[in-house]
Sequence to fold (1034 residues):
Amino acid sequence: MKFFFSYPIRLKISIGILSVAIISYQLVLMQILSYLQWHHFAYMVISIALLGFGAAGAILTIFKNSLTKNSEKVIPFLLVLSSLISAAAVNLSQIEIFRFDSYTLFVSYSNLWKIGITYLFYLLPFFLMALVIGITFTVHADQIGRLYFANLLGSGAGGLLALFFISNYQPEQLAPLISSIPLLAALPIAKKKNIKLFASLISISIIIIAALLVFPQKFILSEHKSISKALNMPETKIFYEEPSAYGYIQIIQSNSLRHAPGLSLNYMDNVPINNAVFVDGNWFGPLLEKTKFDTTKYFQSVTGHLPFYLKTAPNILILDGGTGRDALHSLNSDTSIITIVEQNRAVIQLLNNQLADEVDSLFNNPKLKVIQLTSRTYLQQSNEKYDLIILPMIDIFGGSIGMFALREQYLFTKESLNKMFDLLTDSGYILINSWLDYPYRNSLKLFSTITEVLEEKGLIPIEHFLTIKNWNALSLLIKNNPFNNEEVSNAKKFAEEMSFDLVLYDGIKEFERDRYNVLQDDKFYDYLDKILYSKEKREVFYNQYLFNIKPATDDKPYFSQFMLWKSFPYIKESFGLYALPFFEVGYLILYLTLLQIFVAVIIFIILPLLKVKFSKGKRVWTILYFSGLGVGYMFLEIILIQKFTLYFGNINYAAAAVMCIMLVSSGLGSLMSGKLSKHIIRWFWVMAFIVVMIIVYSFIMNDLLLMTIGKSILTKIILTIALIAIPSFLMGFPFPVGIKLLKESTEELIPWAWGINASLSVLSAVLAVVIAIEYGFFIVMVIAAAAYLISLFSSIFQYKILKT
Amino acid sequence: MKSLIIILIALFTSLSLVQSDEFRYKRERMVRHQIEGRGISDESTLKAMKNVQRHLFVPEELKQNAYDDRPLPIGYGQTISQPYIVAYMTEIILPRKGQKVLEIGTGSGYQAAVLAEIVDTVYTIEIITELSNSAEQRLKKLNYKNVYVKNADGYYGWKEAAPFDAIVVTAAAEFVPPPLVEQLKDGGKMIIPVGSPFLNQNLVLIEKKKNKVTSKNLIPVRFVPFTRGK
Fold:
């Protein structure tokens, strides 16, 4: 058998293909766990990948000689094995005795060992694939620039490929699809000597993967996911499903599913039955058919009807419009144009085309203008004036179950509300509906956010609120000018007719608040007073309250993140530990993941290091240099994904684009790095330049992006590439240069240096989110710059050691 | 041989008696600590909570936890409520002999059994067929002749048996179904939980007086654990 390319070239191709598999497997597992459980498990996947890399680094450090001596024989078999295990891992974790349900984590402790087993299933493929990378980097350290280029290029492509697979295949098919990639990676480097054995192994793998693809095992979702609950109802079934870049879309047909937030207790007619859309097993929105049911009276009987009761709004903007429920409500009023903004392009396309009948072709209504963007991006771009802006209902019915705690919500930040006020006509309203949660969190954060925005505009907040409630929902109306007497008296009339209570307006009387729907105590109103009337009292209240109700900002856009450390004992005492997963466990999971990663770093990185003998000075240098690179790179990547999500209005594409541009540019940088190791001083300059660029970005990037957000797509793409590619290109240099220098001085440290860099990169993906939640994005950027600065100093220090 | 069989039977019987005594002890302790201790004082409610064998309403593997101070999963994403909440929901509707009560969300049948100990008739509706069937069988086996179970959508209530003195909704609902309000007697009370299945300590009482419907959010949440018997 004769090969067209030499072994070193084939090896680089293999590493590139394997890197595609590693990143895409990671992204696909995140998607599968979001579908089966919830998206916080993304962090668990990250930590699993880290453990895989860490464990591979440790094994390599300990068994360096035997693994590297036979690397050409070992690598193809490791690849085939990783392919088989990655194909089977998800299916194994779905077997009943291993299947965990995170929602009942504290109810049935057997879930804990089941999570442990699942962890192991998911860990093995990463361990094997990482071992291949580690062996290659160690054996071929002299070609590290090119190998690293292949690694980064493959990783970039892996992100795109995962997005393609997620958009086009069922969740059950994702793992088998990805698992075929390591097989492809094995082919170019197969040894002639073992070809028979190798060919039979490959054939077995192909048969297994094909079987899993053609006859996918149907996933069983947690019984506590909203779609599982809906499907428990009689005569309820999934009648349409489709993969998309926004998650797995499923539409159910039901004879008993109804949706009526804010409905009056006086309403005595029928509540319409809905079919409904679910994305990744979570509620997305109802499908209302006007022709089947006259919705006029139904919509007139909900708290959210208040603005329509007060006056006609000719020009309405509906943000995060979902399946069009608010649009249908608006169409019932005398409106001329409705702009509906919804980022989930896939659902909109469906309702526009194949499933248009399900919503009576609502999205083809000539009065309706559909914008497929994130709502915040549209707000930044728009210059139109609206009479009514409707926001999506805050919170999910039955408690937030922590769904959005760790998700950036740029629509509910102070800056976003400010922008909404700018887009309102003088007499226009903003309508926000919210479930009345208890303990009060969403409602209080809403009031605090709006109050601070109004105060910063130099207005007296109370004059700009008009709020009503029923027994479990609130509707807030706000406007640029104070509400006049006529508006207040009409609101009172509406409340009287529907047995709603007025909650807030300038001059409200105590008795008006609890006429029909009495709250358990007066605390809610007491809290409102603290928020509304005095800045000092508000600040004291923020610090005293058991949950975080400080307004979200663009720098910390976590509106639904309410947990503080002091919240946990309160929840445990008042609700019981078993309630935690239904409350808001994301914050806790994030910290637990971080803790677990720290432990993993100590076990897999630090302890093996102690076994390796080398001088103390070099050890410190290596730790600092490669840790700094890992932290700095990942922190910047996380921030860039955030910034460009807002810029382009789509998280999936922004994440894929940022990752791709960064990794390819860095790959090119590493390719060019060969010469730099010979010109040490230039190396220092490159590092210094990276530090300066990150600092400059942390000050100007936000404004620059907001300034150009309304420009043509071409201008935005060019600017994006320029902003990301330049620093990323430079950031591709330091890693291979460092490895090369190690090769020349302390070769035994290479696997360990690679392990610490990979581990710290993964750790940083979680750490960046923790820091962003607690301190904001600006601080994350500052730390990124500091991390590169540490690497710079450590390299100067090392240079001095070498010189002396 | 005969004597061996007799010994075995005696051993088995005494084991069951020991177990049954153990559950009775746990149940009495549950009523004393978790229910009376938190301020439930209605005699008929306390008696009913003492009488109904909660461990027969939970899945086999959770029997030992039946009298714990928490809700337990019963499958299909549903739960059997925490004992205190069952007692609280029972007491708040002021159940008395001669009354007719509708329950929406039979689940395991436990709440229906507690109500059936007090009132004349309990009508209970469960939307999930499997739960409805198993609850019906269980209640029959336990000889609750005054409980009627129906597998249907609770939204429509039980028109043929209406009006009701009280309605107990055991699953959180985002709105109150109009037919239920209609089927409530004038002066009747409806109790409904707010929140997720494992979080349902937040309850709302809905009252109908002269065709005017009002609501009141009730305490729970901050239940004080164990004020007695420490």
Remarks:
- The longest helix of chain A spans residues 616-648.
